[in-house]
Amino acid sequence: MDGVTVVDHPLVQHKLTLIRDKHRSTKSFRELLKETGMLLCYEVTRDLPLTDVEIETPMLRTVARKIAGKKLVFAPVLRAGTTFVEGMLDLVPTARVAHVGLYREPETFVAVEYFFKAPTDLSERLVIVVAPVIATANTAVAAIDRLKERGARQVRLVCLLGAPQGFERLRGLHPDVRIWTAAIDDTLDQHAYILPGLGDAGDRAYGTR
Questions:
Q1: What average pLDDT does this structure show over 169-196?
Q2: How many whole angstroms from its chain centre is CA 192?
Q3: Average pLDDT, stretch 130-146?
Q4: What is the largest CA-CA distance in the chain?
Q5: Cα 65 → chain centroid
Q6: Is the dihedral of CA 146, 209, 19, 199 positive or negative?
Q7: Whole-angstrom Cα distance, residue 45 to residue 78?
Q8: What are phi and psi of 90, to 5 degrees?
Q9: What is the domain extent for residue 55?
Q10: Residue 73 has what pLDDT?
Q11: Per residue in 99-118, is it b (16+ CB within 10 Å) or e — as a string?
């Protein structure tokens, strides 16, 4: 699928299988989300620009490389996106965080915003939207719309898995936003849940229904 990278690393695929298992405890589910978030962070940041800097090692002065430009912004879609992004913050602790609170209305599947807080200089930073699943893509599209309204110009999205129709809709509305995922599943059921999927990520992460 154009613009969608499936991360097939064995560790990512192994952990995704554990996450899908309906017998997984809430504690274990959250831990696996965090671990997988860290692994996917390696992939979504693989091509970040580097710059040369002069440093002094215990032995001598040398030229080494570090990430160029302003720090990243992780934008988790609440609720489950918060747990997912914890692993990413372990890897990039200096990143800024934008919180996007959205829920999917159960009858119409329309995304409803209830909270939004982001750095003021989004236009100068790479923004990585973090959403555990992409089903209809209504929530992800709404999050990206809102971030772009606030000035974001470079946006990427990372998720555990999604349905083909969700990825196609997101790419159709935001063709500039590349996607990294661990799996593209089969389809959606009549309630817009992904099949085979992993259920409601927020409920499973926090033990709610």
A1: 95
A2: 20
A3: 94
A4: 65
A5: 26
A6: negative
A7: 22
A8: -65, -35
A9: 4-206
A10: 97
A11: bbbbebeeeeeebeeeebeb
The answer to whether the beta carbons of residues 180 and 158 sit under 8 Å apart is: yes
**What is the DSSP code string of 77-145?**
EETHHHHHHHHHHHHSTT-EE-EEEEEE-TTT--EEEEEEE--TTGGGSEEEEE-SEESSSHHHHHHHH
Q: Is the pLDDT of residue 42 over 80?
A: yes
Q: How many CB atoms lie within 10 A of CB 43?
A: 17
The 3-class SS string of 122-141 reads: HHHCEEEEECCEECCCHHHH
Q: What is the pLDDT of residue 1?
A: 82
Stretch 20-39: mean pLDDT:
95
Nearest CA to 76 among 6, 4, 160?
160
pLDDT tens per residue across span 139-178: 999 999 999 999 999 999 999 999 999 999 999 999 999 9
Q: To 5 degrees, how large is the angle CA 3–CA 6–CA 11?
A: 155
Q: What is the CATH number of the domain that holds 162?
A: 3.40.50.2020
Half-sphere exposure (Cβ direction) of 120: Cα atoms closer than 13 Å: 0
The token pair at 67 is: 């990430």
pLDDT score at 36: 96
Give which of 83, 126, 111 is closest to 192, Cα–Cα.
111
Q: Considering its fold, how many domains does the chain have in total?
A: 1
What is the structure's pLDDT at 186? 95
Nearest in space to 118 (alpha carbons), one of 155, 92, 87, 86: 155
